[in-house]
User: Fold these one by one.
Assistant:
Number 1:
Amino acid sequence: MSADKNPNEKPDSIMKKFRRDFLYGLFIVLPSIATIALVVFFINTISGPVKALFGQTIPTSLSLIITVVFITLIGVAGRNIIGKAILNVIEDLMSKIPLINTIYKSTKQILHAFSLQKKGLQSAVLIEYPRKGIHALAFITKENPTGLIDKKGKDFSEGKVSVFVPTTPNPTSGYFIYIDKKEIIYLDISIEESVKVLMSAGVVSPEPKAIV
């Protein structure tokens, strides 16, 4: 049985109900609106230079296709010796222009951060670093390292794992250390999710795994 209403409780006013329903609806549609706005902004941004070159008469869809083809050609050129030399000259020029160099370097660092998963990082882990009682997010670079032979012939790498401990908010820099396997806590999150956590200083949390 449902509890009886309190006779002394005043019913909500129409304005109060309207405000409550409006805010509830806003929380529902806002993520979709933000996503659509970001997609439109991205399309307008990436196709903007082509429109500026050919004028506003060119359709957005065509300018987007031309831009994608142009970027792909730059990628192809950047993979050979001549293309790399040209890109190095452009990068050197960008790094010498005040204000522009800050924006360029920051953007490059962000892009490099999200490409960390392609640099041989195997899995995300927690380790006690820089001291006991403090845990740092890190990445395993090799499960079974070898070659650390001391002068007595003992393999120091036995039973250890090589780990990269990144910094925040730029996870492309950090520290390389060896740690005992038994001191590692393996995490059930991807490299990409780990990078997001690092870049946001923990503000962004990984999506919880669905329990089957």
Note: The radius of gyration is 26 Å.
Number 2:
Amino acid sequence: MSRQNINVMWLNLIQNKISITFQYHPRIVNAVKTVTGRSWNAPMKRWECPIENADEAVRILTPLGFTASAEVRALVDEILQETKIADDIKNGPTPEITSRFPLFDFQKKGTVFIQKMKGVLLGDSMGLGKSLQTLAALDCDSGPHLIICPKSLLFSWKAEISKWAPDDKVIVIDGDKETRKTQWFYAKTSKYTVANYELLLHDTPFISTTEWKTITCDESTRISNPEAKTTQILKTLKCGKKIALTGTPVANSPVDIFSAIDWLAPRYLGSFAQFKEKYCVTDPFGSVITYKNLDHLAGKVNRFMIRRSKEEVFDDFPKMTISKVLFDLSPEERKTYNGIKELIRAEIMKLDLDNPSSIVMIPVKMLRLLQMTDDAKLLQPEWKDERSKLEALKDILKPIMKSLD
């Protein structure tokens, strides 16, 4: 290559991407193609890569004669500093923090990790308090914060916030479209807004009108399919910090982690096709049959993820934790519940309350209401409609069973 070619080989920061400019040479093109997340910008006739991979681009391309601009060098320094901070938090002593939340030492590390990092995958095992660590990390920020979770966990999140931060305003998005529209309007002035994943599809215009400080995805395996509409819409939402929570970051295969990381840092692992090319072995039909370069993948992901198992934090963790899981009855269940309640009220009005044997009958009758909230099939074996408590239980058990695989 001539000296003239070398002089035009630059790494610049343009429109929040690393611009890679050079005069064509096959050797340079091949080197550029090894940078994770690279893409060809046809209109501008230049190669680009995400800013999160600035350090990788500099490491690969500067030995070939590329010059990194001051902005790119500053980005590299920032990435290296962030990586060091992440390592220090995970491997260092318990940080000293002041919090109104009752945190164990390992939870203090998780809280500080969330506070310090721009994108976080908190992959602690089930039962280690991922929601508590998240709320503790966001406690000093007035929001607005959006929490997206399975529908069965909507009211559990509200209860958790009300329990530890009773003065913080929280809105649960639920009900018909007009009701939700009003709720989304008031979300702008609430510290926390809790919504289920399905509303990403139905309420996109309402969600997009708010400038969220953070978006938290609970049970983030729900976005493990990069081609799902829910995942694609989520990636269009703007916010200052992104937090993914899951007890099973790799539920079935390493492919599961791609979409969550791609949300936290777009194209950090490349396109899905590039990811599969680098980390998957496929058959002639494109189906994944095994994996490769997993140590490299673990190293890439490590910057964003903190994960602890119960065995690792056994000395910190209490012997038993009892959690209340709140759920709402479906419209059909609520209608039946109210019908039973009115029937019981009418029966009680007929009782002789001066007769002790009549008073004893009241708890027996009230048991029917308890049975209805437990499972409608206890009262109506032919029940065909939604069974809310069973669905809530399924959502709790699924990640537990996956973690045992």
Note: The longest helix spans residues 70-91.
Number 3:
Amino acid sequence: MNQNCIQEESKSRLKSGNACYHSVQNLLSSSLLSKNIKIKLYRTIILPVVLYGCETWLLTLRVKHKLKVSVNRVLRIIFGTERDEVPGEWRSLMICSPDQIIWVIKSRRLRWAGHVACMGERSGVYRVLVGKPEGKRPFGKSRCRLDDNIKLDLQGVEWGCMDWIDLVQDRDRWRELLNVVMNLQVP
């Protein structure tokens, strides 16, 4: 958004994803469809709507929590619940982890950053990605830039010791890194 309000953007994306979820809720809760088909429905209908533009999001704890809650609600409908041995307690039968949506966002961010870094220094998007804003930041605004987020993502997969822009120039190593990040997000 032009006001750089990531929380409002993520809130609107979750609201749109919630509308998609309600449009296919009958299919996701149906006992006639297999769990694999339900997961494919989730991945092709709901997830792209929620994650549109996620490459530029700053993942605060609040945004992460809201994303996990949203994913958890859908997975609970898909996999259902069953009664535990202890009377009166229910447990959820989930194979997928809600934390995986965070890895999806990080892998998309790294892939997007690689494309932008290959554009060169004259590109406007590149200057926004690695540039340092002038002046003081308003009170309450985050100190992280997109470049800082990418460095944190690389540290999360233990590749943070290198300059990521130099790493992008070596395409084979960058692909290897992207494969590592993509393999962390299962299913």
Note: The mean pLDDT is 78.
Number 4:
Amino acid sequence: MTFRTLHRFTFAFALLTLLAVGASAQDKMNKMDGMNKMSSAKPTVAIIRADWCGACQKLEPTMMKLMEEYGDRLNFVVLDVSNDEKTAASAATARKLGLAKFFDANKKKTSTVAVFGANNKLLSMTHYSRNKETAFNRETYVRAFDEAIAKG
């Protein structure tokens, strides 16, 4: 085996490994989203994400942990816009939850995390390009989630 062939093989293996890890994190997030039955008595956290979004990949580990911690006190919905099929399914979910206007206005802003209170009133929203300093800061989300729960 030549050095060039070995190098190509190593690169291909590394690329496939990275893709598998990313898909696994996204699958876990979607499963956790599905585990949490929506309750109109709880505030809702909507996450707009896509497979191809680097900021989303940085955000997902934090969101997965927060979903575990807050799953009994908040509703979580992941609105995936990775491709046309997933965007259409997310639009249908958003309509069902009364979040259609929010989704239509923000579906091109991946890595958006929005917290909604009673009557789907927007309480807070972060987005990587707008909030670079705090977009991946766990405390930003903890503060927003706790405030939404307190407002009940």
Note: The chain has five helices and four strands.
